[in-house]
């Protein structure tokens, strides 16, 4: 959607805590005053991040999961959370990735709230924790994810999950209300009391 832009850099929360370098950051340009020069993105302006990997093996998955857990620990002053995603051009098999997710989660002592939201291997499969998709398909074993073997449709579905979440979770009106106090669109008015 036009309301969002993308870049790369580091996320920062109101307390000064920072993430590691992010490959792709999807953010609102209307709230992002630090990004032009410093590559620092205020956490409240960020909707989503994407870790990009050429080949996703256990080592690269662990690096991505560590980076994502840092992002997920940052504190937002607005409601909602950042959707963190992983995209890879190639990877180990989906069964191996599932096994590695569980091992890395245990090894790093990560809670479900610190894990990625979607993982896409181009031309192969998509792993997601999307609640609607999970309600339609029972997750395998004790994982909080479902696996979709989408082959060439994996990338379009991955992007659709990101855009769909963007339109529902970070609507521009609450943001304008928070920072401007008043917003009018045609005949509707919103005012922060």
List keywords for this structure.
10 strands, 6 helices, 193 residues, alpha/beta
- Rg, alpha carbons: 17 Å
Portion in helices: 25-40%
Distance between the termini: 29 Å
Number of helices: 6
**Mean pLDDT value:** 80
Helix/strand structural class: alpha/beta
What is the beta-strand fraction? 25-35%
List the helices and strands and how they pair.
Blueprint: E1 5-12, E2 22-27, H1 35-38, E3 40-42, E4 46-56, H2 58-73, E5 83-91, H3 94-107, E6 118-121, E7 125-128, H4 131-136, E8 146-148, H5 154-169, H6 172-180, E9 182-185, E10 188-191
Parallel strand pairs: 1-3, 4-5, 5-6
Antiparallel strand pairs: 1-2, 2-4, 6-7, 7-8, 9-10
Helix pairs in contact: 2-3
Structure characterization notes:
With 193 residues, the protein is of the alpha/beta class. Helix content is 34%, strand content 29%. It contains 6 helices and 10 strands. An 8-stranded mixed β-sheet has the order 3-1-2-4-5-6-7-8, with helices on both faces. It has a two-stranded antiparallel sheet with strand order 9-10. Helix 2 packs across helix 3. The two termini are 29 Å apart.
